[in-house]
Structure to design on (849 residues):
């Protein structure tokens, strides 16, 4: 049978692919999106891996926070290769030129030694040797600065800036910093100085929030991956309590790689939605193709062909067309990394190594084939049982029945395979499962809504207006476009609404929904010895303001209840607790914004064994209970404390709070600094904030002031760029929906022509018919908008509240904008498809009836 089916299918396809245009376009579009996302992600991963040494600054990096390497640790590093040291911290920079008017801004200060950079190329303007740029001349050290700093403070090369207690001459603009990607989000422009200049700033004090990165370059003859792994293993065994964070060149920027993985996952899920929307077009195209082949099917059945053979022939035909379309889509997607590198290589900072990725192409083809089968099996299965008589009567009426159970079972199996493939091949399987469940729920809801809309239209009272009566009848008549429009366009609209609502809620969370008494500033690196003087200074400069100050250290959880941190498997929402160093503190009383929900707080004069209070959700996700222990590494020393209580923390008040709060005396004698928040009594004006920062720069030059608004704006911009890409991908879904609608209108063109001809013969004018069709599309479009926006908003609320754990608020303006777009698309495509029907002469059509 398979040979026969293949021969018949191939002969049929040799006559051309007429009628499969929308089918091919939908599959190509969806597969191209999946292949493109996978190929670009793989190319980014290859680029990061290829540039791993330059991004990391060495073969292996050892990072320490709040302290430098001890003599023993430094000796270990020097024994294994060449070492370059870079120190990074935040500081306040003041412009000293007349044009800058003494303005201040937060900067990311980086001090490097003579070996920097060991890998990659540092580019400055003018492009001078780094020692010449950073050298001390005429009593001032040199600096290379981010052009954004020069713009912000209205400075140019040759002008001076003060940072801490030191003065620097801007000798060059910093164009390219090879290891910039190894850091996280920057909250200020970069300033590059020499390691010799750092002590002159006075910024490095006991407990300062400075990070020392020791980049190790292995000897040229022994720099293999095995040698890198051996150094890491030896460092962990020889110096187990060092508390340093070790990164290797093959994992140069774990944060960046995680961001790429997550971004890729979300784009892939959006691309899958595009493919799902295209699946509706596949179903319509297959049904229309079978309708066109009804005479051939009838003839084959008369000559003895069985229903199974009919199914095999046309299923083979669909598979061949789907394979052809999927191959085209996979090829176009595979070319996307090359286009990105060619057109955007000089714009994006992430290295791209374009190449063909067969795995990504094969995966996208698999998705395309599965979707084609999912949506084609239903009409193909129904073709099995259509009688010869019904085939000849199909000009008048269509037979409605379910396919045989074996075809329904086949559809279920293919859907299960699609879901399994989508979940297994994603990084966050929980998110993928939630997304697929939501997509299936929205799809089924829209299909049910279409059925209910048709039934409601059928049972509406008889309208007096003939125009309105015809429009309503078109909604529920056989072959109506209602299911096609509501399912395809509704899916696209739901996705676009969800993305827009998520974007709006994140923006609202970061900026618009700030608490009324949110702090204006965070102050870091307050010397503990000057804490009382700092408090008095702030109260004098900002009378009536609220100052909250706490001690702060940095530590990494290395063990929880006897289990190594690497062996812990917390829930996705709390993995960040184990990732790198975290801020920790100690307190005699419960911190503001927290409340004890389990256990008891220690007394104010407690002086016993180390105790710790843990944020309740993090404790739950880590599987920790009261009485169990946590071990943290602080300043190279492991400290074990017993859990005394669990706290619920209100993170949204933007006050100072921590996952771990220790009992007093736990870190007795440990060098540390304080951090503080300042909240103006009346919210504070821009002039008051600027005056305070300027006064503080003179009184406390080593203290850094971080504007809450600027920090949140930075985060908002970062998230906004991500959402912009998601909006672009969602627009692709709407384009797929438009293709489906175009195909649906084209498939119904025969019925439209007959309707128009009959009505024109009975005296209807072209204007009246145009009004009928416009009303029909408007009613269907409004129903689609209602369900699409509602379902998209519900999906967005689930993502925001359950995945991101933020409060959700429905934002009507973006939802209305998305709805208007969908309604416009429906009307334009619908009316464009009717002009052909309206332009046909009745005589030519009536002769062929």
């Amino acid at each position: 049978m398979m040979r026969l089916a293949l021969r018949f299918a191939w002969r049929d396809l040799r006559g051309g692919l007429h009628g499969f245009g929308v089918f091919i376009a939908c599959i190509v579009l969806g597969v191209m999106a999946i292949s493109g996302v996978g190929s670009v992600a793989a190319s980014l991963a290859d680029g990061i891996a290829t540039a791993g040494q330059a991004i990391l600054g060495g073969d292996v990096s050892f990072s320490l926070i709040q302290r430098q390497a001890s003599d023993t640790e430094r000796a270990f590093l020097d024994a294994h290769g060449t070492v370059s040291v870079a120190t990074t911290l935040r500081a306040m920079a003041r412009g000293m030129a007349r044009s800058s008017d003494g303005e201040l801004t937060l900067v990311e200060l980086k001090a490097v030694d003579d070996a920097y950079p060991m890998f990659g190329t540092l580019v400055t303007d003018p492009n001078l040797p780094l020692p010449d740029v950073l050298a001390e001349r005429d009593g001032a050290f040199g600096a290379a600065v981010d052009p954004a700093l020069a713009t912000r403070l209205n400075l140019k090369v040759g002008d001076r800036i003060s940072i801490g207690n030191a003065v620097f001459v801007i000798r060059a603009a910093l164009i390219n910093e090879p290891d910039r990607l190894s850091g996280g989000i920057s909250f200020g422009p970069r300033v590059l100085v020499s390691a010799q200049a750092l002590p002159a700033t006075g910024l490095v004090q006991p407990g300062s929030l400075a990070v020392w990165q020791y980049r190790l370059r292995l000897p040229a003859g022994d720099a293999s991956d095995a040698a890198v792994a051996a150094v890491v293993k030896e460092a962990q065994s020889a110096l187990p309590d060092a508390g340093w964070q070790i990164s290797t060149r093959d994992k140069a920027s774990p944060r960046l790689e995680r961001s790429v993985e997550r971004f890729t996952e979300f784009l892939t899920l959006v691309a899958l939605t595009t493919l799902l929307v295209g699946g509706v077009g596949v179903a319509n195209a297959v049904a229309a193709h079978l309708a066109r082949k009804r005479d051939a099917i009838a003839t084959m059945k008369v000559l003895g062909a069985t229903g199974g053979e009919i199914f095999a022939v046309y299923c083979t035909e669909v598979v061949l067309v789907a394979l052809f379309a999927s191959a085209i889509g996979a090829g176009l997607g595979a070319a996307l990394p090359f286009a990105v590198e060619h057109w955007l290589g000089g714009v994006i900072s992430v290295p791209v190594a374009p190449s063909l990725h067969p795995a990504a192409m094969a995966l996208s083809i698999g998705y395309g084939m599965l979707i084609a089968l999912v949506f084609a099996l239903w009409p193909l299965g129904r073709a099995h049982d259509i009688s010869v008589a019904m085939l000849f009567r199909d000009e008048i009426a269509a037979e409605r029945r379910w396919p045989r159970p074996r075809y329904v079972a086949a559809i279920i199996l293919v859907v299960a395979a699609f879901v399994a493939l989508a979940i297994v091949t994603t990084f966050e399987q929980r998110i993928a499962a939630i997304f697929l469940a939501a997509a299936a729920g929205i799809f089924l809801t829209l299909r049910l809504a279409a059925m209910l809309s048709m039934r409601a239209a059928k049972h509406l009272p008889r309208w007096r207006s003939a125009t309105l009566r015809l429009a309503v009848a078109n909604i529920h008549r056989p072959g109506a476009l209602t299911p096609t429009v509501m399912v395809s366009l509704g899916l696209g609209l739901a996705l676009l609404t969800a993305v827009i609502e998520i974007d709006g809620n994140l923006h609202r969370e970061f900026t618009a929904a700030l608490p009324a008494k949110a702090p204006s500033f965070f102050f870091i690196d307050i010397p503990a010895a000057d804490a009382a003087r700092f408090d008095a200074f702030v109260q004098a400069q900002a009378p009536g303001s609220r100052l909250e100050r706490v001690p702060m250290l940095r530590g990494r959880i290395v063990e929880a209840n006897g289990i190594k941190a690497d062996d812990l498997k917390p829930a996705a929402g709390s993995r960040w607790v184990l990732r790198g160093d975290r801020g920790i503190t100690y307190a005699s009383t419960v911190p503001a914004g927290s409340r004890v929900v389990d256990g008891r707080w220690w007394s104010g004069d407690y002086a016993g064994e180390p105790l710790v209070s843990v944020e309740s959700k993090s404790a739950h996700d880590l599987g920790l209970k009261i009485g169990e222990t946590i071990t943290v590494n602080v300043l190279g020393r492991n400290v074990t404390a017993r859990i005394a209580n669990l706290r619920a923390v209100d993170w949204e008040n933007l006050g100072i709070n921590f996952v771990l709060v220790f009992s007093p005396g736990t870190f007795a004698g440990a060098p540390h600094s304080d951090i503080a928040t300042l909240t103006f009594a009346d919210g504070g004006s821009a002039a008051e904030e600027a005056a305070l920062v300027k006064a503080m720069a003179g009184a406390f030059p080593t203290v850094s002031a971080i504007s809450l608004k600027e920090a949140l704006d930075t985060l908002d911009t970062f998230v906004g760029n991500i959402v912009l890409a998601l909006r672009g991908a969602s627009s692709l879904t709407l384009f797929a929906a438009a293709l489906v609608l175009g195909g649906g209108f084209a498939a119904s063109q025969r019925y439209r022509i007959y309707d128009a001809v009959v009505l024109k013969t009975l005296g209807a004018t072209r204007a009246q018919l145009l009004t009928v069709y416009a009303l029909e599309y408007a009613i269907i479009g409004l129903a689609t908008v209602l369900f699409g926006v509602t379902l998209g908003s519900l999906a967005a609320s689930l993502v925001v509240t359950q995945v991101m754990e933020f409060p959700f608020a429905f934002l009507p303006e973006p939802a209305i904008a998305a709805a208007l777009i969908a309604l416009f698309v429906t009307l334009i495509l619908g009316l464009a498809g009717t002009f052909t029907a309206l332009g046909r002469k009745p005589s030519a059509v009536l002769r062929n009836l």
